[in-house]
Here is the input.
Amino acid sequence: LLWPSAATAKSGSDSVKEQAQVKVQARGQAKAAKRDLVGKTIVITGASSGFGEGAARTFAARGANVVLAARRGDVLDKIAAECGPNTLVVATDVSKAEQVKALSEAALAKFNQIDVWINNAGVGAFGRFTDITLADQARMIDINLTGVVNGSHFAVSQFKKQGHGTLINVA
Here is the structure.
């Protein structure tokens, strides 16, 4: 057994002081993180459920302007009501380039910039490959691949114009 020497042993009061410092630092970091999102505009596709919905609620609670996009506008309206006044709903089918362009334009019209774009929309089909219809296979490609390309195109174009931005693709 090794016993700490008197020189390396910490008193109980030193330990309490260190714990208090850690708590103060954590609170300061949390406040700084919230300040970092205040006024930032975050576009989230696939915001009507799952990760997208959770991200929207979290970012709105931290002071961000949140732009919610999904095909189900009625569901987005309910989420937006809970997220607060800095929330914009744009019913969007990400597989349609013109609708993603309209999403980008609506976000810019309301909030003047886009700081973060999250391509989160996605669909799946369950069953054996040969049992899934070709139409369902094509729809998965339209949403999961073409939707990401469409969102990335308009997001990166805007980021280049404004000199900054973050693109997040969820797979």
Q: What stands out?
A: The chain has a mean pLDDT of 88.
